[in-house]
TrEMBL record:
This protein's record includes keyword Acetylation: no
Ranges of biased composition (kind: Basic residues): 452-466
All residue ranges annotated as the EngA-type G domain in the record: 3-166, 178-351
NCBIfam families: GTPase_EngA, small_GTP
Family membership noted in the UniProt record: Belongs to the TRAFAC class TrmE-Era-EngA-EngB-Septin-like GTPase superfamily. EngA (Der) GTPase family.
Gene assigned in the entry: der
Organism this protein belongs to: Dyella marensis
GO BP, sorted A to Z: ribosome biogenesis
Highest taxon in the source lineage: Bacteria
Protein name: GTPase Der
Residues holding GTP 2: 184-191, 231-235, 296-299
Keywords from the named record: GTP-binding, Nucleotide-binding, Repeat, Ribosome biogenesis
Length: 466
């Protein structure tokens, strides 16, 4: 496995900015306010001679209650698994009592510590570092993470401290794994679901809505299949989103939907199916992602409440009646086996390879069973079909007058193909292509014999009219 380096420090000292600079990404959410990062965020730094894992952690505020206590617990877990600790400091704030308290905790771990003094742009480096020399650390480095200055020097100091026998390159976590995005409204139970699947408190869970802000990617292996679970921030109605951080969190969630292969939309069974849930489902369908509806908090509901919930789902989710509804309890773990089976079926259906001959035969049966309405007295002809891509399955149909085919007939073909090939849990896209007319723009020029024959026919027709 790759060695692990943890970034630790007070809130708003630039840990997430440094994480993005070291991993050459924008995965970590960055804002000029404390407490943006809460969960552990993993990435791989490949800028040096050897790659290693970088862990972005939440800021240690010194408050041991509420979300701050949960964030501190995540930081301690990152310290335990790391081989090297990078203590990120703010050059403009100087040394604060909280910095000394954090350093004492880091020293108790007995692991190598590197002091990274951030935000040194525009300052005299010697004066900026002089105050932090009182820490007595062997390595105190200046850097400006926002401008990517000093990060290469930091990597050079980190590499000698890593174990030599743990530098082999790992395959990307997405290789061969099913990427599953867990989305929904705030407090629907997304983080609880992932923790339950992992069997550990990997993500912060709180009754406070909006606890998760960054999309967190977590690898999982279950029943011989590999997954990458993407925990996303809850999405509220646009009118209620006021903070800039929440706006960026929503953007990250929508990007996670586009990057996933299967989208699990979590719905709170104890609340009515909201329009925001439908918007998220519609966005997943527009992106062409395989879809599973997870109805959470099913435990504790009586029979009447369950029947009312099922009827509401059936009535309002008719436009995605091909998606599987799974009733679960993320807190107690009920229904999770069926949920994972639905995810696998949706993924396999979205990536199924179908031959052109099978598609053409199915198209012929569909055409014989129900022909499209006439267009100016002529019926559109559908000649043959072939695959046009996967995830979602795309079927390209060639014929004539296909531009005039009604949307209802397109839906008929989608349902026919879905039923024939058992494409459960994935949208099916139909693309029509008109064949070119080889005689378009050409004029038939008559020969002399054809012209004489035409004249004789005209004379005969005139005689008969008389």
């Amino acid at each position: 496995m790759l060695p692990v380096v943890a970034l630790v420090g007070r809130p708003n000292v630039g840990k997430s900015t440094l994480f993005n600079a070291m991993t050459r990404s924008r995965d970590a959410l960055v804002a000029d306010m404390p407490g943006v990062t809460r969960d552990r965020h993993y990435g791989v730094c490949r800028t040096g001679e050897r790659p290693f894992v970088v862990v972005d952690t939440g800021g240690l505020s010194g408050v041991e209650e509420g979300l701050d206590a949960l964030t501190a617990q995540q930081v301690r877990l990152a310290i335990e698994e790391a081989q090297v600790l990078v203590f990120v400091l703010d050059a403009r704030d100087g040394v604060l009592p909280q910095d000394r308290a954090i350093l004492d905790d880091l020293r108790r771990s007995g692991k190598p510590i590197i002091a990274a003094v951030n935000k040194t742009d525009g300052l005299d480096l010697q004066n900026a570092l002089a105050e932090f020399a009182t820490f007595g650390l062997s390595s105190t480095l200046p850097l400006s993470a926002a401008h990517n200055r000093g990060t290469d020097d930091l990597v050079r100091h980190v590499l000698p401290l890593l174990a030599e026998d743990a530098h082999e390159e790992l395959a990307p976590e997405d290789a061969g794994a099913i990427r599953v995005a867990i989305v929904g409204r705030p407090n629907a139970g997304k983080s609880t679901l992932i923790n339950r699947l992992l069997g550990e408190e990997r993500l912060i869970v709180s009754s406070v809505a909006g606890t998760t802000r960054d999309p967190i990617r977590v690898p999982l292996e279950r029943d011989g299949r590999r997954y990458v679970l993407i925990d996303t921030a809850g999405v509220r109605r646009k009118a209620r989103v006021e903070e800039a951080v929440e706006k960026f969190s929503v953007i990250k969630t929508l990007q996670s939907i586009a990057a996933a292969q299967v989208v699990v939309v979590m719905i709170d069974a104890r609340e009515n199916l909201a329009d925001q849930d439908l918007h998220l489902i519609g966005h997943a369908v527009d992106e062409g992602r395989a879809l599973v509806i997870a109805v959470n908090k099913w435990d504790g509901m009586d029979q009447y409440q369950r029947e009312q919930c099922e009827r509401a789902l059936e009535r309002r989710l008719q436009f995605v009646d091909w998606a599987k509804n799974v009733f679960i309890s993320a807190l107690h773990g009920s229904g999770l086996r069926e949920l994972m089976r639905a995810i696998v079926r949706a993924h396999d259906a979205a990536n199924r390879e179908i031959g052109s001959s099978e598609l053409t035969r199915t198209l012929e049966r569909a055409y014989e069973g129900y022909q499209p309405p006439l267009v100016r007295g002529h019926a559109p002809k559908l000649r043959f079909a072939h695959p046009g891509g996967s995830n979602p399955p795309t079927i390209v149909i060639h014929g004539s007058r296909t531009k005039h085919i009604a949307p209802a007939y397109r839906r008929y073909l989608e349902n026919f193909f879905r039923k024939r090939f058992k494409l459960e849990g994935t949208p099916v896209r139909i693309e029509f292509r008109d064949g070119e007319n080889p005689y378009a723009g050409k004029k038939n020029v008559l020969t002399e014999g054809q012209q004489r024959k035409r004249q004789r026919m005209i004379r005969e027709m005139k005689k008969r009219k008389r």
